[in-house]
Amino acid sequence: MNKVILMGRLTREPDVRYTSRGDSQMAVARYTLAVDRRFRRNSDGDQQSADFISCVAFDRNAEFAEKYLHQGTKIAVTGRIQTGSYTNRDGVKVYTTDVVIEEQEFAESKAAAAGYNAGGYQQSAAPEHRPTPTEAVSDGFMNIPDGVEDEGLPFN
Q: Pick from 121, 144, 147: which is nearest to 131 by CA?
């Protein structure tokens, strides 16, 4: 089975090109996802790093990428790994690994995405109103009241 599920942010605008396919054209979009790794211990303390995964989308998925995906957009994708090789102009054989996109969707709301600046860091502003435990916060989730133990949560 060859199945990949990733969530990350686009490192730059998708590169979309059109190729001839008989009498019609087919869109091909290439983009790179920065996928965070879990924290790891090093001499400087905890530091987060990321993997940069090359992705390629065809036809409608490529058209979707061209129209809606931009640098910094957080998306979730499913697809398959595809390897290949070619010989470059210098005569050196180059090996490639891409994720061929089968499905892609947004992984955050527009409001949450607006909280990220060009560097990809979330801007923090002191909230004027602190929601009560029963009020939904801006990301669509509710606060868990103080005193509720983790064991009582249904997804634990």
A: 144
Confidence at residue 25, expressed as pLDDT on a 0 to 100 scale: 92
Domains located in the chain, CATH noted: 4-152 (2.40.50.140)
Q: How far apart, in whole angstroms, are the C-alpha atoms of residue 20 and residue 67? A: 20
The pair of three-digit structure tokens given for residue 80, joined into one six-digit string: 């398959």
Task: Evaluate if residue 30 carries a pLDDT over 60.
Answer: yes
pLDDT at 77: 98
pLDDT one-digit tens code per residue, 42-79: 656 566 689 999 999 999 999 999 999 999 999 999 99
Q: Which H or E run contains 17?
A: strand 15-21
Does residue 68 contact residue 29 with C-beta atoms inside 8 Å?
Answer: no
Written as six digits, the tokens of 67 are 């129209």
Residue pointed to by tokens 């527009």:
110
The structure tokens 């059109």 sit at 18
